[in-house]
Amino acid sequence: MDVASTILEQLGGGRFILMTGAKDLVGDDDSLVFKIGKNARGVNLVKIQLTPMDTYRMEFYRVKKGSAELLKALNDVYWEDLRPFFTDQTGMETKL
Predict the structure, then answer these.
(1) Low-confidence ranges of the chain (pLDDT < 70)
(2) What SS3 state is found at 86?
(3) Per-domain residue ranges for the chain?
(4) What is the 3-state secondary structure (H, E, C) of 2-63?
(5) How many Cβ atoms sit within 10 Å of the Cβ of residue 4?
(6) 86 near 92, Cβ under 8 Å?
(7) pLDDT (0 to 100) of residue 1
């Protein structure tokens, strides 16, 4: 859970949750998965996974009625780019 907690803090922690409506956060040894509120791009599930290269893989999904469509996958994302890429792919701001 340390990695999941770190990912959430790098995204902005509680402020990120408030700004995006993130919910149902689930973490494991190397990733964080969460649902988000309505947005311009139709993304409603995000998975961020730490890779062996100490960078992240970000996956953006549209999930509905039991099916999941991968809309975009980004590899080799540095921690400081998590917020900008999230905003780019969802249209949602992560800070004021």
Answers:
(1) 1
(2) helix
(3) 2-90
(4) HHHHHHHHHHCCHHHHHHHCCEEEEECCCEEEEECCCCCCCCCEEEEEECCCCCEEEEEEEE
(5) 20
(6) yes
(7) 62
